[in-house]
UniProtKB/TrEMBL annotation:
The keyword Transmembrane applies. It comes from Zhenhengia yiwuensis. It comes from the Bacteria. The keyword Transmembrane applies. InterPro entries: DUF2752. The lineage of its organism: Bacteria, Bacillati, Bacillota, Clostridia, Lachnospirales. This is DUF2752 domain-containing protein.
Length: 143
């Protein structure tokens, strides 16, 4: 059938996207963005938004300066970046195993995408993220 080559092509395209993102992150580490804030919210209202320091935190995280990354944005450094990197690495392994070695390997990313397609999970995740986002913004500025 023609379905298998198309699926392999889509998987390889996803793997190429991961490689391009990694290359762009590497090139981003060569920029001087580490020193100053470019946040519109902070420059207008002089209050840190929950995402303030996210770019500088990412730059320090991918260059293994974890202490500085925690200083810029601890929520992203402790939760978002490691979770994302683990999912991307695990999905890349699944793509390579399925496409090149013809092994059947299920990715956690595909399982999460299946969970996200359910409405209840989407609503719970959305409400939880909004509550955490607002709580982090309050704690960051007023405590």
């Amino acid at each position: 059938m023609t379905i298998k080559p198309v699926q392999n092509l889509l998987h390889i395209g996803r793997l190429m996207l991961y490689i391009l993102v990694l290359l762009s992150l590497y090139l981003l580490t060569k920029t001087p963005l580490k020193s100053e804030s470019i946040c519109y919210w902070y420059s207008t209202y002089h209050i840190l938004c929950p995402m303030c320091g996210g770019t500088r935190s990412l730059l320090n995280f991918i260059t293994f300066n974890f202490y500085e990354a925690l200083g810029y944005n601890p929520i992203l450094t402790l939760f978002a970046y490691p979770f994302t990197f683990v999912l991307v690495i695990e999905d890349s392994i699944a793509i390579i195993a399925n496409s090149f070695f013809h092994k059947h390997y299920t990715s956690w990313l595909l399982y999460l995408m299946h969970l996200i397609n359910t409405r209840l999970f989407c609503r719970l995740l959305f409400i939880t993220l909004i509550i955490l986002y607002m709580l982090w913004g309050f704690l960051r500025n007023f405590i």
